[in-house]
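Help needed: design a sequence for this.
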């Protein structure tokens, strides 16, 4: 065998021998390292001079005892820290995985480490790396100086007192949503997960206050975001925590829990990036929130990535700790009903004065004491941030002695244990809020235990020093306002399934399963709703009539639907306007679902009856977005038309519909309608001939004008010849009359407050249902014929609606039907009613009638009317306007206030309008206000002729202002009547064509007092006789 062969045979043996040697050496070195770390260092550590628990494991030290993240009756919170504090004193040491830790419970030592000598005690790398993982970068919770100091300097202005005051409305708004949600489940024994609703509450608050973003979590929007947050903020496990801290790339391991965290973080980052991008692309706003400051700070301007880290930081720190603390407060109050009663009384006293302000918070001393005592027993974060000593340091203690903390030592402060230290707290495990009331016996007893020292370094729920919680005052104010708002209305009891032992999720401490119920007492509710709340309601700043009923308030007076000689129109509202002014309030039985949508709460609610011009301008124009039409009115209109149309939509949906329909009402189209008006006015006049030739005939004018206007809107808007003037399609008008019935009190309250009321087998409701089916069938037929017919050059409203929009959206036949019914109703009912009122007014004022006829004859002498002729009918137009002033076709407009607002008034000081308030414009009363109209109850058309004596007199009463916000027959603003010019032109043509041929006189059976029919006002019984004019007889 040659040398080469022998060498080849020897190589494997040599290789394996070398490998074995390497493994052996590595094993020996690793063993030596562990012996050094786990045996020699602990044995020789100078920290052995401090007392402390013996390690339970030679490898893990005391880690097993310290990794308890859940407690129960056998192991109550906050053991083991409290046990060791009591056993080993205020400075003891323990060991975790070979790392030495000193736990401090001494106030002088805490002051030294966290304030005096803070710079040599940075936060430990483990906690900083975990928080960097959570937020995606270096933020307030993970940075050290000088970066931390710079970040605090940039963010501090957002938490100044002047800024905090502006958050009060946000806190109260969302607290009210939570309160109403709890009211909706009161007395049902339905368990509520308080942690869930508190988390959603605080999430929405921090979103709006810090970033101007409405997550809508309280209305169960952003559910995926909330779930992602919970997934990221998981309950820690020792293996996962250890891996994330010490194993590079551990978060990328293919473990289910890590994949879940990664997915959650990606979703949250995406949401936060979207928030930042919208901020960057939006125009500058005067409302400056935290994100605005971050993106536009002086000096260093943050990148979007840096801003994302801060947003994530405040989403975590700004809601998790607050929501958990509120959960513990509700738990403590449920366990201590005597304390709950005292807190509730204090909260009712303060919140009953009206909307909470920043200054009101000082009047909640006992509520604040309850918050502090709760945080003493159950701090939201169990410990202060762990620090690592950078060089040997001598630390003083309160007893005059000192200890040495060596370089590399971890320093830990258990807030939960310190807050129950019997050395400094009387009855430390008892819930006694009085200890935080300065001057109380308990306060003095605790102070004596502390040797007269303040509580600053013993009670540290928000940490202390330069790295203390930046949002301390924000969080405290949020909790104060939430509690004052909620506890003034409801109380809580623990459900049988509740488990209020503590557990840690991520970083914070919360109850394991806080299931609660909301008890209710009918007597207490009635006392609050009918006595306490009315007494302290913010709208008490406005004058108003006393309620005539404890239950209905002023409801009985406001549900008058007909008037007579003893109670002339506009009735009580006209009297109240003159007595209480242009802005007063009334009380009616109603619901508060307009305040926060998912539920209803029956109670006496306040209505602002508004006629003030500045107030009307503010609500209808300046801040119209905050005042949508009342949901009950919108629901009524939607029920009538079978869907969401112009009379029932709000916001972008309404804007889109207006944009689609506006072209049909342009001047170019209106000019083309004059011939349609003229043709049907001629038919109307020809039909009158048969009545005029019969001296005994009595005409129901309303029926005739209804058929006329119905035919006109059919042709002009939908190209459909209903031909009701020829006595065809009477079922359509009969259906309209059945649907537009005079409401009874039962119908009003039933439709408003009883779900499914319209489906009850009541005769009135059955007639309405049958009528609606008739109208739907007829309109569906009109639409079907349109869709089947070839394209025509003659374009009407329905043609426009059925065309695809510029964005490609094409409305369905059902949507088109809603719009058709909207215009059939609004396009004929209001016009026909106004025509009847004009004829009634002219019959009562023959001198005015003569002047109108003269003007019409002069204009009609040109031949058939065209658009340009209408401008010559000045006096007729004034007559129409004066008729609408005295007898508006629609008498009321009811809006609701979406967010708290301050309403400017011309005649009074501004008034606060709380969210949910109803605003009512009564046109009949407003347009007869003697403060702004000369001889306000008289029929004087001259007041609408510019330059006339009456015109100038009225203008002087208005201090030179135009009549825009004093005379609103077609409303004003973005939701004004889209067909106002159409209606006016139709009335001008019909009246000019008719009055030149016939004169109308009231019959002795006529009753022209108004009555309310569904939505509009019309004369009770307009019986008239008709005769040809002399010139027509001669012809």
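Sure. Designed sequence:
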């Amino acid at each position: 065998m040659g040398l080469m062969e022998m060498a080849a045979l020897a190589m494997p043996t040599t290789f394996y021998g070398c490998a074995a040697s390497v493994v052996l050496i590595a094993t020996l070195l690793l063993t030596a390292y562990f012996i050094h770390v786990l045996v020699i260092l602990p044995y020789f550590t100078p920290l052995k001079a401090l007392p402390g628990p013996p390690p339970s494991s030679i490898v893990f030290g005391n880690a097993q005892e310290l990794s308890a993240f859940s407690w129960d009756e056998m192991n109550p919170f906050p053991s083991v820290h409290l046990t060791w504090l009591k056993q080993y004193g205020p400075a003891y040491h323990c060991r975790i995985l070979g790392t030495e830790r000193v736990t401090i419970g001494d106030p002088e030592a805490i002051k030294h480490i966290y304030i005096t000598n803070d710079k040599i005690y940075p936060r430990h790398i483990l906690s900083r790396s975990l928080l960097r993982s959570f937020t995606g970068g270096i933020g307030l919770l993970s940075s050290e100086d000088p970066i931390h100091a710079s970040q605090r300097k940039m963010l501090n202005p957002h938490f100044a007192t002047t800024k905090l005051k502006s958050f009060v409305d946000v806190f109260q708004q969302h607290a009210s949503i939570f309160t109403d949600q709890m009211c909706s489940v009161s007395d049902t024994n339905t368990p509520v997960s308080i942690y869930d609703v508190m988390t959603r509450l605080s999430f929405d608050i921090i979103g709006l206050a810090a970033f101007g973003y409405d997550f809508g979590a309280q209305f169960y929007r952003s559910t995926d975001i909330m779930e992602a947050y919970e997934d990221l903020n998981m309950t820690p496990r020792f293996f996962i925590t250890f891996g994330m801290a010490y194993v590079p790339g551990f978060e990328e391991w293919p473990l289910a829990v890590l994949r879940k965290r990664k997915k959650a973080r990606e979703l949250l980052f995406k949401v936060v990036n979207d928030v930042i991008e919208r901020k960057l692309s939006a125009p500058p706003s005067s409302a400056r929130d935290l994100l605005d400051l971050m993106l536009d700070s002086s000096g260093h301007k943050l990148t979007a990535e840096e801003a994302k880290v801060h947003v994530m930081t405040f989403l975590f720190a700004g809601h998790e700790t607050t929501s958990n603390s509120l959960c513990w407060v509700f738990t403590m109050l449920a366990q201590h009903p005597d304390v709950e009663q005292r807190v509730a009384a204090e909260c009712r006293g303060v919140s009953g004065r009206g909307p909470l302000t920043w200054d009101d918070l000082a009047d909640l001393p006992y509520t604040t004491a309850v918050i502090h005592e709760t945080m003493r027993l159950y701090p939201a974060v169990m410990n202060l941030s762990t620090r690592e000593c950078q060089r040997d340091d001598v630390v003083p203690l309160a007893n005059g002695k000192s200890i040495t903390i060596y370089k590399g030592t971890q320093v830990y402060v258990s807030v939960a244990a310190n807050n129950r230290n019997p050395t400094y707290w009387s009855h430390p495990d008892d819930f006694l809020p009085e200890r935080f009331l300065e001057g109380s016996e308990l306060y003095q007893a605790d102070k004596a235990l502390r040797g007269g020292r303040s509580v600053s370094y013993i009670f540290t729920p928000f940490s202390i020093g330069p790295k203390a919680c930046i949002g301390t005052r924000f969080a405290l104010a949020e909790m104060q306002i939430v509690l004052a708002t909620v506890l003034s209305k409801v109380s809580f009891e623990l459900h049988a399934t509740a488990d209020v032992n503590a557990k840690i999720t991520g970083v914070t401490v919360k109850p394991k399963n806080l299931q609660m119920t909301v008890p209710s007492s009918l007597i207490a509710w009635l006392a609050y709703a009918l006595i306490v709340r009315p007494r302290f309601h913010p709208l008490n700043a406005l004058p108003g009539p006393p309620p005539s009923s404890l239950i209905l308030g002023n409801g009985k007076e406001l549900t008058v639907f007909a008037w007579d000689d003893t109670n002339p129109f506009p009735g009580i509202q006209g009297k109240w306007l003159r007595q209480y002014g242009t802005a007063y309030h009334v009380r009616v039985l109603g619901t508060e679902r307009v305040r926060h949508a998912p539920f209803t709460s029956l109670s006496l609610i306040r209505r602002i009856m508004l006629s003030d011009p500045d107030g009307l301008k503010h609500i209808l124009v300046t801040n119209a977005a905050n005042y949508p039409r009342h949901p009950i009115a919108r629901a009524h209109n939607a029920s009538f038309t079978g869907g969401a149309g112009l009379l029932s939509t709000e916001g972008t949906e309404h804007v889109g519909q207006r944009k689609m329909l506006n072209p049909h009402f342009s001047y170019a189209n209106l000019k083309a309608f004059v011939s349609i008006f003229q043709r049907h006015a001629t038919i109307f006049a020809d039909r009158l001939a048969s009545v005029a030739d019969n001296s005994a005939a009595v005409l129901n004018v309303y029926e005739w004008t209804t058929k006329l206007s119905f035919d006109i809107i059919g042709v002009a808007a939908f190209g459909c010849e209903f031909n009701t003037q020829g006595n065809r399609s009477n079922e359509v008008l009969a259906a309209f009359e059945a649907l537009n019935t005079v409401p009874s009190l039962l119908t009003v309250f039933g439709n408003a407050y009883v779900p499914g009321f319209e489906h009850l087998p009541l005769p009135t409701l059955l007639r309405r249902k049958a009528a609606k089916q008739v109208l739907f069938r007829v309109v569906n037929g009109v639409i079907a014929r349109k869709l089947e017919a070839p394209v025509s050059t003659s374009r009407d409203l329905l043609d426009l609606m059925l065309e695809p929009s510029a964005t490609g959206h094409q409305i369905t036949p059902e949507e088109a039907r809603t719009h058709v019914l909207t215009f059939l109703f609004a396009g004929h009912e209001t016009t026909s009613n106004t025509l009847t009122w004009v004829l009634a007014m002219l019959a009562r004022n023959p001198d005015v009638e003569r002047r109108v006829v003269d003007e019409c004859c002069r204009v009609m002498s040109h031949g058939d009317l065209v658009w340009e002729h209408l401008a010559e009918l000045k006096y007729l137009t004034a007559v129409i306007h004066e008729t609408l002033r005295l007898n508006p076709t629609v008498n009321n407009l009811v809006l609701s206030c979406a967010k708290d607002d301050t309403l400017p008034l011309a005649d009074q000081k501004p008034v606060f309008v709380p969210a949910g308030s109803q605003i009512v414009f009564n046109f009949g009363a407003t347009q007869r206000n003697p403060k702004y109209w000369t001889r306000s109850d008289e029929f004087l058309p001259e007041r609408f002729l510019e330059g006339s004596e009456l015109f100038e007199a009225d203008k002087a009463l208005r201090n030179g202002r135009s009549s825009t916000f004093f005379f609103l027959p077609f409303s004003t603003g973005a939701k004004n009547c889209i067909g106002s010019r159409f209606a006016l032109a139709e009335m001008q043509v019909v009246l000019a064509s008719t009055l030149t041929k016939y004169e109308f006189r009231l019959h002795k059976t006529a009753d022209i007092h108004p009555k309310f029919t569904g939505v509009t006002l019309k004369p009770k019984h307009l019986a008239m006789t008709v005769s040809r004019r002399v010139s027509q007889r001669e012809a």
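The CA atoms of residues 544 and 579 lie 9 Å apart.
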